[in-house]
Amino acid sequence: MWPDAGAGHNATMVKEDHRTRVAAERRDRMRRRLFASAIQLVAKQGTATTSIDDVIRTADVSRGTFYKYFDAVDTLFDQLALVVLNEIIETVEPGVIQFEHPAERMATGMRMVVQLVLANRQIAGFLVRMGWPETRGGEVLMDLPRRDLEEGFRRGKFVAMPMELALNIVSMTVLGSVHALLAPRVPAGFVDQAVASALRALGVQHKDAVRIASMPLPAATPVEGGLLELPLAAGSQRKAVARRRPAGG
């Protein structure tokens, strides 16, 4: 009986597929390791003073390994920012599109982004230190409010204003809330009040703005295995809880 050449060929392909998959998983793990180190460093000291040496020392890898993935530390920062922002979009968008009214979408998106980012203080510190939304991929996250602002303008739900002004109201509300909630003491209901103020600036009536800004939020599940699921550094979670306690609490 002649050997089954097809069976041998299939076995070879299975082995090659397995090797390819294992290699890809190894690359993903190393890339994630470098990303995690960069997040930790940038959150602590910013981008200007974070070097390749800092990253490889924190990640415990060689310089050669770093250059297999990134040609410069700025490339690492740029790619990392895009990954984080895309994960935020993927996590928040399913909750946002549940609502029909553009004001409800805007408020839900702003509050969910703040909530999601503050669930990991290192991610929050990273985005603040990166200067989002002015630099490094910040425009990616602004695609969502731009869509809902355009609809709100078209339907007469928001007062007419330049798009850049409206986007600035939204982005500064989000970033300002993250900044405030990283401080030691924050007034209760700060984010809801900030979002209500943003809605009023867009032309929503005061009563409606307050109601919309305090609506229950949809559940948000971060991307499985994503950077938003990175564990906090030792002790950070306890500090985060303590710092977010309301003033006088």
Major sheet characteristics: none
- Spans of at least 5 consecutive residues with low confidence: 232-249
> Per DSSP, what share of the residues sits in E-state strands of 2 or more residues?
under 5%
Q: Tell me the CATH architecture of the domain at 73-243.
A: Orthogonal Bundle
- Give the mean pLDDT: 83
Write up this protein.
There is one protein chain. With 249 residues, this protein is mainly α. The C terminus is likely disordered. It is elongated and about 60 Å long. The protein contains 12 helices and no strands. Helix 1 crosses helix 2, helix 5 packs antiparallel against helix 8 and helix 5 packs parallel to helix 9. The chain has a domain of 171 residues: Orthogonal Bundle (Tetracycline Repressor, domain 2). The relative contact order is 0.12.
Write the layout of secondary structure elements.
Elements: H1 5-45, H2 52-59, H3 63-69, H4 73-96, H5 102-118, H6 121-130, H7 138-141, H8 143-154, H9 163-181, H10 190-201, H11 206-213, H12 236-243
Helix pairs in contact: 1-2, 1-6, 4-5, 5-8, 5-9, 5-10, 8-9, 9-10, 10-11
Quick summary:
This protein is mainly alpha-helical and 249 residues long. Helix content is 68%, strand content 0%.
Keywords:
single chain; 249 residues; mainly alpha; Tetracycline Repressor, domain 2; disordered C terminus
